[in-house]
Structures are given as structure tokens and as C-alpha cells.
Batch of 2 targets.
Target 1
Amino acid sequence: MKKIINLDINGQSQEVAVGPHHTLLQVLRDELGLLGTKKGCDTGGCGCCTVLVDGKAMYSCMIFAMAAQGKKITTVEGLTENATLDPVQQAFIETGAVQCGYCTCGMIMTAKAYLSSNSSHVPSDLEARQAIAGNLCRCTGYQKIVDAIRLAAGRRIVASSEKG
Amino acid sequence: MPSAIGKEFLQPDSGQEVVELLVKYGDRALVVGGGTFLHGLVARGVLREMDVLIDLQNAGLSYVKQERDALAIGATTTFAELAAAERVQNKPELGSVLDALRYPPAQIRNMATVGGCVATAMPLFDLPVAFMALDSSVRAVGPKGAREIGLHKFYLDYFEHVLERTELLTEILVPRQPSRSASAFLKLETNANDLALLNVGVRVTLDEKGTCRDARVVVGGGIGKVPVRAVSCEDVLKGQRPTLALLKESGNVVSFDIHPVSDFRTSAKYRSTVAKVFVRRTLLRAFGRLGVHLDGQS
Amino acid sequence: MSETSIIGTSVLRPDAYDKVTGGKGFPVNVRLPGMLHAKLLRSPYPHARILRIDTSKAERLSGVRAVLVPSEVPKKKFHPVFFSPGMAASMIPDMLILSDTVRFAGEPVAAVAATSPEIAEEALDLIHVDYEQLPFVLDPEDTMKAGAPQIHPHAPNNIAMAPSFAFGDLEKGFEEADYIFENTYQTQRVHTCYMEPRVCVVDSDTFGNLTVWSSTQSLFGLREKLASALDIAVSKVRVVRPPYIGGGFGGKLDIGFIEPISALLSMKTHRPVRIEHTRYEDFITTARNPFKVVLKTGVKKDGTFVARSAKSILDTGAHATHGAVVLMVHGMYGFLLPYRCPNSKWEGFTVYTNNMIGGGFRGYGVPQAAFAVESQIDEICEKLQLDPIEFRLKNSHSEGQPHPFDPSFKLDTYRFADCLQQGAAQIGWSNGRSKGKGTGTKKRGIGLACQPLWVSGCIGFPDIYEHSGAVIKLNTDGTADLSMATIDMGSGQTTTLTQIAAAELGVPAEAVRMTYADTETVPFDAPSHASRVTYSAGNAAKVAAGAAKKRLLEVAGPMLKTTPDNLETGGGRVYVKGAPDRSLPIADVVKQAESPYVRMVPDGMQKTSLQEKGTVMGIASLAPAANPSPATAEFVEVEVDTETGEVKVLRVVYAHDIGRVINPAGAEGQVEGGFQQGMGYALMENLVFDQENGACLAADFLSYKMPTAVEMPPEIKSIFIESNEPTGPFGAKSLSEPCAIVPAPAIANAIYDAIGVRIRELPITPEKILAALGKLSE
């Protein structure tokens, strides 16, 4: 039986009819038209579906939509503010971290969550790799994605030191 | 593969209410913690007749409390929450748990629950082995009341444990460890997002003279239907001063206790061989946490 | 002036902004009003005849709009491969859209279209199929033996094809050899793992015209093969170019079952029909075929090849699909051609089994060959105490010599030696290989593997399309719209093509946009495969841009009061040669061409020139002039844990004679991505099946192990040697496939250097390493 629920997506309350077994990924893509979150495997193995739930990276293919009520969900569509790219998005473009792009949004969300909770230093090569261990990519070999994460981290530190 | 066509999604407010729902719905009900293992099964069409989903996130089971003789970890505490909990920091005796929690990728750490992990009864999982090395037990509630079961008695087979269908696992209890104890955990995996080919959890305790007073060695992964306490390995250590040779000897006798399986991931022979190495390395890591650094390879 | 500021610059990808903000252009996002969803019912048995299908219950389920069964599909067999004509003699048409006989576990037997994917899924359970199970065979050698089940009526002993080639006198060659090496190599089945699943939407009208959106590597190939499968005219099928797709790597070079099934359901329901593979379905629908290769090689003691023979067995599974061509490419570019040898023989067998079907995958049969050839070379050098670099150079081709495949071409640019020497210097090869240096139980080693000969497209190969086209037109704001059928599957095709066009036109890179295209509006392009896009499609883009530029200069001549041959373009302007201050913005010239012939001015009417009027545009459709060969050498350092057998890759140096780098970041990205695929192939990937029933055991990413960022080495160094190929656009030849061919043998050779064991079977798992070290205990 479908129920009408409210989900907080990118700061907006969205009303949607969902069945008990529907995943957040299905609801984002099929009901809410938010196509940035991707389905790569539907079994929590690839990371293409990564969204932030209360700021934490999670696989939306493994979250029941009904369980997502009351949480703040952030998708890639919520990163850009007034047409200004999030620094992580910008870094991905600049380092050549985007090839086919299918894993990209999931990677960006994972990177965003990681950098938000590790904001005081630039991650080492290994730390950046471990941060994205739950996100698969077949095109890039991950090298430039790691570069992008470290670039974004470095810029954030410079920006905050300039402010402070 | 067909997916479950669910009929109900319920979010009870307490463990007791969960039990009532389990009694009411019987075989149709499925309890959901983080859902990280569940969805794989759903996608493979394994759980089709279970059309009542009982989500535990509002049941008040997310906490890490210090009881008098044990650390009580609520069943819906996520991996990330447990790893960050103040009560587990800087405690060498809880090293096995923190080691185990570092392996999964961020998304799994944020979603997977401690209770879900233990209750799935998947011998390839890590936390149960880490907990078993610390003589942990499970607290469950059911229609007949609450009970505690030691983890070493909890598992029966793949995906089978001793709880009734109407019982809910509510807590993992990690008893206070003897003083001068440290634990550690290592996992053998093919890539960074993998189930264990083999894993080992150990706890060692030294006396004032630096002799190993007591030890636990638990082996999991593809070594059988349930994790195994490798008593032979423990016996080698007891009463001895830890040396590299002793640790190697302890590792070597693990073959008496485990009966690895061959599967599409690797063979029983490989698991047997590497189990010896991993027992040694995990012991080395644990002793290192007590300031006992032995020469040679880690 | 303009060319060098664009060619060789890491121009940002024009589609990157879209992709980082959500990525609208993926075919998986196509949604049409009234669209239905279809699901496929798949056979649980590896070999069976369908006696009866009862769909009555499924048809009655609320929400189901149509069902499709084998009796309803065209009976003419087809081959699904995009790059060959339907009737090509070298291809094997052995497929039907749905068949009464299923030949692999997972082969579709029926389909349902419904108003939601869930209802379609539920309906599948209501279809009842009576199967008669037949004996099946999964082993590629058993399948050729007498008494094995016959899988296709046209292939006795289940041999789909068995080509062989011989040169010189093999027997005499072996007699002259000082040493003879004979080894057997075995590679495994792996999955392409593109991250966007195979997906299509097909819409139809009442005349039976179809419009197709698909995650595909070829517009025209899909059009042709879909028309062929449906037995309708090609002009009834329109395939729309997606802005990009989420990866292909060769795994989307054929019609899956989904496009024809979707088309038939659309025609039945008069609605658009969508089919999206689950990841499980993708795993069992395309793969790199496993090979067994037996190599026998005779050398002189100075390392000269005197006799080489090879026998290769390719398990093509239930249908030939790519098996015919993969075999030939393997034999030619994997074995016979890369090195010189006066006496050679190769025999290949493409055999049917009841395993899953295969597809294309980067390298196309040659990774399997290179694993064998490059491992054996290392073994020969070790035995004879020869330097592996000198050995290869001794036996390789040289610049200026005739091309070994087609002597009417020459190896105009061929810098294999530079690749070896520069790569060796970068990794520190002359310090001596590691020979197991390391601390304690961890041993290090360095290995080398090469792909001395490769292709830039397919000109010269029988039965393979190779021509490209482009249309480009300039806008009055100084931008240009480039329209091509070329598919961008992530390797940066759009970026490269727009860069080339921009450089030729003399406008900034961002000024050229790749725009809408479908099979009705643009000239033919062959698929995005065979490392061909930069060289072939790039050439077409350059020629089209050149034609547009010629027209531009004809219009600009009178405006700048000179003749067109006295003009040049650069930085978005047209200028007089030698007098750069006499210039005009290109936008102004285009405005002149597009503005009215007669203008109103204060004094009345003013005429311009009729000859200048008309859209400034260029069109090209042509075949490339040649098939130049890049060359590749890769050096890899590994560390082996001799207690567990685990292998860690520490360093990679990749050297490639590329002709000219169009986009450095893009080129590095190909090397790095290729290494992930090659390393996965070498160490962990394995699509395994239950030998009792043919069921796939590894059809999800937890069970199928692919390298994550953590397993990759901290650095992959790319060295690009720019030999300036005269026939390539701005000197470019190809890059992508060798990146995925050389890692596995380089890793295998590095493991030998580290621990002195040769493993001749992929993947090289920790278990195999311990077994080879004699360390596996009970």
C-alpha cells in the first residue's frame, strides 16, 4: 500500500507517494525527477547512488524511502548554490576527474561528506583513496578523482586561513 | 530478479513494541537495521514472502552505555557511531572492535548497525569475530522476557542463530576486560569493499611479569558455518612470554580448530595456510598495543 | 598560432559541468510520456528446448500491456555486431531475438511490457514455461570432442570458425632454433563493468517507424542491426545520439536482446517501451572471452625469433557475437604481427559452449594474447640471460618499413624504441631489476610488457566499416555547431573532436559545440571502438572544419580587401597573413554571410554581394588515409607478500608513441583507466559460473572484484612520444586500447622478478602465488 510521506530533499519538503519497499533511490529518480543520483548496481556495491543523509554519505539504493522521513537528504542537485559550483564539483572539472561521468555524482557526494568532516588538513593520497573505497569507477583509474579531492581540500584550507 | 512487494512499513517506538509486531506478523515480518545486507537479498528476490518491514531506527536502540561490568551497545548503533563513541577511544582492550570498524567504506559505516551485523549470522562478517574475541554477549527481548546469550553460543549456522523469530536483539554487551589486555582484528580481503576471505580477532592479557596470562583467538570468514574460537592457539600462549616464535607457533596450530571451506572466492587450502599467518599477525598487533613490540614482520 | 594553443592543451571537457551537476544526457534518463516498462524472463537452464509457454495469467495482470514470446519474432537469424555489415562473410549470424532453444543460463525466453517495472517483474512470475532440458557443455575443449552436445546446427563439433595462417617454413625454423620454449596460458572471463547499465527506449509510429534511444557505442550500427533483427528497412529506424553514455569499453558494440524486444513491444502496444538491465543482467550479457593459448617459440641464442607457433581457443559461449573478429584480432595483432619472425603459424578456434555470450572489451582479444606472448618473452630472456628491452627491439619492426598487415602502407611513424628507452629511464630499469629486493617477507619486482603494434581504426580490415563524417556550421556569434554521429562513451570523444575542429577553424576550443545528431541528420560514423575516434572521426571533423574555414575565407576576402589565400584564422579572428592588425572577428564574417543581401541605410538601399550569402559550413564524409600504428611499453613495480600471496602495485610507467597528444589530461585519463582494467584483469576479476548448472556466481560488485581506489598504485606516470603521424589530425594516432592490454603481462613479469615464479593463468590470485611458492598447506 502506498503512503503519502514528506521528504526533506535539498532543503525542500517534497510530498511523494511511496510503497513500503521503495528505496530512496527509486523515489529520487522515478517520483521526484532528481536524476543526478544514479543506479549502478542497486545492491550497495558501486556507490553511484550515494547521497547525504544528515550530512553522512549513504547508499540511497539501500535506504527505504519511508525510513528517510525526518532526515535531511542532500543530492548532487543540492550542491550548487545560485549557479555557483561547490568547490568539490569545480575541482572535479579542473583535474580531469570526469570521464563518462556516471560515477561522478556519487563520488562528489562521498568526497563532500569526507571533506566536511575532515576539514583541517589535506588528506594524504591513501586517505583520499580510502575515503572513496565505496565508490567504483571504471573509466578514470581514480587518479584524477583523488587529485580533485586533495585540490578541493587544499583550497578550502587556503580559503579558511584567508578568512581567519 | 523480482523485488519484494511490501505491504507495511512500520517504525515502532520501542523494543517491546517490536516484539509485539513480531508476534503479530510472524514469518511475514522482517526487522531492518541499516538495511545494508537486506537490500542485496531483496534485489536477488530472496525475501519475497516477507512483506512487513519493521524499521528499528525509532526504537531507542542507538547508544553506547557503560554498565557496571560491561559496555552496552544498542543494536541500532551504526558502525560510524560506535567508532566515534567516546567510551571506546584509547582503550587497547577494545582494539579489535575499532580495527573491524575501519574496514568497510564510509557509506557502509554510516548505515550498517551493530545489531544488524551480529543478527545476520553471516560468518563472513567482521564485528561478530571482533566481539567474540572479547567474550561478548547478546541481549535479546521476546514475548517471554529478556535474556543474555554469549556470542560463542549464539550462532548455529549460516544465517541462523538461537533467537526465536519473535525475539529482538537489543544490545551487544562487551564485558570489562581483565587489566593489561589488548585486542586486535585483521581481515583478509581482495579489495577494499569486500567480505572477509578470512578474519581473525584476538584478545591477549599480560600479567605483571609480562607473561601472557590469558588469550582469545577467534577465526571467521570462510572457515565454516560460524566463527570459531581457536582454543589450540590460545593454549600455546597461556603462561608463556610472548616472542615471535611463540606467536608463530600459536598461528601454526590454528589448523586444529578450523575447517575452512572452498568457495568461488578461494579454496580451503588457501584459507588454512593464511589463517596461520593472520593469527600470528593479529596477535602481534594486539601485543603491540601493550607495548610489546616483537622483532620481524608485522 | 591557433593550433598549438588548443592542440596539446588540457581543454576542460565541455560536458563536465553537466556531469558534475547531475548529468542529464545519459540514455538511462530518457523518459517519454506514456512510456511502458519491460522486463525479460530468462532461462534458468544452460541448454534447453522450450516446449510450451503459457502467458495467459501474465497477460491478465492489471497493468500488463503486452507479452512477447519466441513464436512472434522474425525467424531470420542475424549477427548483432555493429561494426560489420549484416551479410559480411566473416561474421556468423546465429541469433534470434527470442528463440525456442536456449543456449545459456540467462538467455531471454519472453518479455512483458507493463505500466511499471514492478508490475512487469510480477508478471514474469506468472509466465509458465515448460522446458526440456538438454545436455550442456561448459568446457571449451570438451565442446569440440565427439559426443559433445551440438549447440548450433551449422557448427559441427561446436567450432564456429577455425582460421589458420602460416608463413615461411615452421619445421625448418624450429630445427634452426637454439632453444625452444613451449608454454600454455589461460585467461578468464571478465566483465566490462561500464557503470551505466544497458538501457534503451524505443518508440514507434503507426507506419512502423522506430525511434531509438540507447546506451550504445554506435548510432548507425544500432540502426543497421536493429533493422536486420526486425527484418525491416534501415530507413525505418532512427537512432538518436545521446550527448554521452556512461561507459562502454566495447561492451555496448552490439544489439543486446533489449533493443529488438523493446521495438517489438512498442509496435504491439503503440507506446514507447523502456528496458533497463539490472546489474545482474549486464554481468551475464557481455564479457571478455576466455582464451587458452599454447605458444611454441624457437629462438637463436642471441634472441632472434626463428620460429613461432600458437594455437588459440576462444570460448565464445552460446552465440558467436564478437567471437569471429576477436579471434582474428587476437591472432593478428596479438600474435603474428607485433614482432618479426620468418617462420610462423597460428591456428585459432572460436568454439561454442553453453556459457554466456561474449562481447567486445578494450583490446579485443589481444590482452589474452599479450599475456601469453609478453610473459613468454620474459621467460626466454631470463633463460638466455638477455635484456628484455634489447630482445624486443631485435625482433621488432622499424620506422619506415612496410606495415606487417598491409604492405601498401608504411610504418611512417613508429617509435617503439623510444617507448622502451624512455620508460626504462623513468622507472630506473638500468639499476637492474629488483630480483626480489624488499624487507623480510615482502619482495619487490619490476616487469615490462609491450604492445608493439596496434591500430588507429579499421581501415584495411575485411568486413569492418571505417569511414566517418561531420557537419559543422558557424554561428553569427562566432561559435560553431559540430554535428557527428560519433558516440562519447567517456573517453572524451566530444572533447577531442571539438578541439580538433576548433583548432582547424581558428576559434577558441569552447567556441565549438557538439550538438544534436541522429541517423537521419548526419553522415555515417563507424562505432566508437578500435581506438579509432581521434584518428578517423577526428580527421573527418578536421576536414569538415577545413571546408567551413575555406568558405569563411571566401566571404572574408572581400571584407578585408584581399584574396582568400592571403588569409588565416586564429583566436576567433580572420587576419591577413603577415599583417595581423588587418583582421576581423569571425563572428562578423559569418554575420556578413547570413545577413540580408540588401540593407536599408540612411541613403536608401545598399546591396552586398550574392556570392557571400549562405550559411558558412563544411561537410565531410571520408575514410582515413591509413592505419598507423602506435607503440606501447609499460613498466610496473610490484610488491608481493610471500606469506599471503597478496600483490600490491607500487609504480607504473607507461610510454606510448601517440603521434600527437590532443588533450594531455584526457590522454593520461586513458592510461590510468586502462591500468585499472588491466590490473583487475591481472589480479582479481573473474566472472565465475557454477559448473553444475551454468549459473553465474559473481554477478554483483561484492562478489565480482574490481579494483577500488585503494588497490591502485599511488602514481601512474604517462610518457607520450609525439612522432607526428602525417596522416593523422594534427599528427595524432591512437591511444586507448594498449593501455588495457599491457598491464597484465607487465604485472606477471614483475611478480616473476619479485619471487621467481611464473603464473600462466589469470587472474593471478594470492592463492596461485602461494601454490607456486609451494606454500599451500593442508
Note: Chain A touches chain C through 52 residues (CB under 8 Å).
Target 2
Amino acid sequence: MSTIAFAAIAILTLAAALAAATLQKLMHAALCFALMFVGISAFFFLLGAEFVGLVQIFVYIGAVAVLIVFTILLTRYDVSKVRGFNWSGVLVAIAVFAGLVWAITKTKSLPLAAPPIEPVTVHRIGELLMTNYVWPLQCVGVLLTAALIGALVLVMEEKN
Amino acid sequence: MTLSILLVVSAALFCIGLLAALSRRHAIFILIGIEMMLAAANINFIAFWRFGPQPAQPTGVMVAIFAIAIAAAEAAVGLAMVIAVYRHFRTTDVDQLDQLKG
């Protein structure tokens, strides 16, 4: 059961990612990008990290995909002027993938079975965020505020 | 489902993101590729937490949550930069952006 679900999710995620990376029309690529994040969230649910899966859906499909669609609509893109694909990037990507797979298959100490765990509840995550991880939480708050202000400053009208 | 299969899937996702970032010439595609690579790293965090020796401590979950927050900030600033560059140069093709002078 878990194996079939895993195979289906892996195929869906990788196919959507490949489509998002190679499709010529920007809007189709953005929709495939959202579909890919559905697959990644399904991975998180399968691995027992339900909260991260939900956060992934809210943040990526709810916010980042919408931002990308907005940016596509605000910038005009002439498909007729598109020049060909840069094939050296494909070679680099394949070489990196081969190296990573070689390293993974060479490693002998990878554990085979997942140990049974208690589900990580939102209650426990909230408790940890307020105790052990309170400084990282504050830093992320400052970072998000700075990113918000920076994005606003960047897109403000230039005064000539 | 073993850890090595999961790692291979996330490596494949990382390399598709690398392909998008290296071989496309549109700025939005480069950002999409970077987001894919960050998502692959998140899968690795969760997989190593789940198969690791101490899954009772949800360290991997916390790191993944912080990584998602930072990726969201990066996407917002990156897309704002794409819009600012488009307004100035009237193009989003990164090959044509070859001047530092505004």
C-alpha cells in the first residue's frame, strides 16, 4: 500500500517538475509548479510530518504560485523571440544527478526501515517554537518583515 | 519505501530544478528552479528525520518549517526584482540584461 502510494506520488511529482522546467508557455509551467508542490506535500504526509505538508500547501500553492502567476501577468513575454534551450545546462544537471546517485548507492550505512514514532502534533511543534526555537522564530519574523519592506521598495515607482 | 529511494527522488527533483535554473533564459523560470531545489532539500530534511536514530525529537520538522519560511521570503523578493527589472529594461530575458548601468 505504502509502496504503491510512494511510486504514484514520486511519478506525479517528478513529471510535474519536468513539465514545469521545460514547458514553453509560462502559465502552464506555473500550474505544473503548483501540482509539483501537491506531490511534495503528499510525501510529507506519507512520512508522518502532517504539519509541514499543510504549511507547504498554504505557503506554496496559496501564496508563491499566486505570486508567480501575478508576475507572469504583469510582465509581457514574447514567445516568438524565444531562443533555443541551453543544452549545456542539461549536461550539468545529468552529471550532478549521476554523482548524487553514485554517492547514495555507495553509502552503506543508510537505515532501511523507519522506526515507529508518535505523531508530531501541532501542540508539540508550538511548544518547541516557544521554548527551544524562540530565537530562530524571532529571526524569521525579522527576515519576513525585511523581505516585505524590500519587495515593496523594489516595485515602487521610480521618480524621474 | 526506503531512505535511499527517497534520496534518489529528491536528488532527481534537485537536478530538474538545476536544469530549469541553468538552461532557461526567462527570469521566472530561474526562480521556479530555485524553489524546486529548496523543496528537494526539504524532502531530505524530513526523510533524514523520519529514518534517523532519534525521530522522537522533531528537529527535521522544525528545520523544514524554517526553510519554508525563508523560501517564501526569497520568492517574494525575487519576483519583486523581476518586476522592477522588467519595468526598467522591458524584458525578462536574463541574456539581455548585460549592463550594470541603469
Note: Chain B has a mean pLDDT of 89.
